[in-house]
Automatic annotation (TrEMBL):
It comes from the Bacteria. GO terms for molecular function: DNA binding. This is Cro/Cl family transcriptional regulator. It comes from Thalassospira marina. PROSITE patterns: HTH_CROC1 (PS50943). Residues 13-62 form the HTH cro/C1-type domain.
Length: 72
């Protein structure tokens, strides 16, 4: 996948557990886990905005693009 989710890195930097973030933003721990692992096909901007607000970061802190990892 060309987009890597770096949510686990931001959680570690903020010393926050996934469970705490899921509660703060109002999604299930299972859905947050799927997002963290990159096993989702998309994310709502509303959810992304809530994560950024809770972690005090920018979307670019959570998502990374790598041109050389495009599958096809």
């Amino acid at each position: 996948m060309a987009i890597t989710v770096r949510l686990d890195v931001m959680l570690a930097k903020r010393k926050m557990k996934s469970k705490e973030l899921a509660t703060l933003i109002g999604i299930s721990e299972q859905n947050l886990s799927l997002l963290k692992s990159g096993k989702v096909r998309g994310v709502r901007f509303e959810t992304l905005a809530a994560i950024c607000a809770a972690l005090e970061c920018q979307p670019g802190d959570l998502l990374e693009y790598s041109a050389d990892t495009i599958e096809g």
